Inverse folding.
């Protein structure tokens, strides 16, 4: 007699990081566990070089161990987080680390899921983490979400940050 089979749902690693929600047709999502200290120490890089190659160190998407992988075809797929109070004319500035292959985009979406600001950060084409900076300029006042999207590829993202330019001045 089998009482339990498989891993219980409440201890499975989710496909999308906590506090984020997936969007887009045909997107595939996976949380990727960071290399352990032992795995990192077995590389040929010194500790300073390792930190430069993966500037995220212990700080990553979930419980300081995971980053988010997003796979999309020809149509956009990604993750969003909100709510965010979006103000017309305000500049929203931030950064995100990414690696993989595909087009990476960030944006602000209204409550209906339509983008009121969208910026392509270009084609990601690297096995190493790279920091991408952005400035979003919405054309609407609304409640909405901050979104990270991929087109035509698989991109792993981590340490997304965003604030208003007003908060920085």
């Amino acid at each position: 007699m089998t009482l339990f089979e498989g891993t219980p749902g409440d201890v499975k690693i989710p496909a999308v990081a906590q506090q984020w929600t997936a969007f887009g047709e045909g997107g595939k999502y996976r949380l990727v566990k960071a290399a352990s200290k032992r795995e990192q120490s077995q590389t040929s890089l010194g500790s300073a070089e390792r930190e430069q190659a993966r500037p995220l160190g212990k700080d990553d998407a979930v419980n300081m161990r995971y980053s988010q992988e997003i796979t999309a075809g020809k149509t956009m797929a990604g993750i969003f987080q909100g709510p965010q109070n979006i103000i017309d004319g305000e500049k929203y500035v931030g950064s995100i680390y990414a690696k993989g292959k595909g087009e990476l985009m960030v944006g602000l979406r209204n409550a209906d899921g339509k983008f009121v600001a969208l910026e392509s950060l270009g084609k990601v084409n690297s096995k190493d983490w790279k920091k991408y900076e952005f400035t979003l300029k919405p054309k609407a006042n609304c409640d909405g979400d901050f979104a990270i999207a991929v087109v035509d590829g698989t991109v792993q993202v981590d340490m997304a940050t965003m604030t208003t330019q007003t908060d920085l001045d």
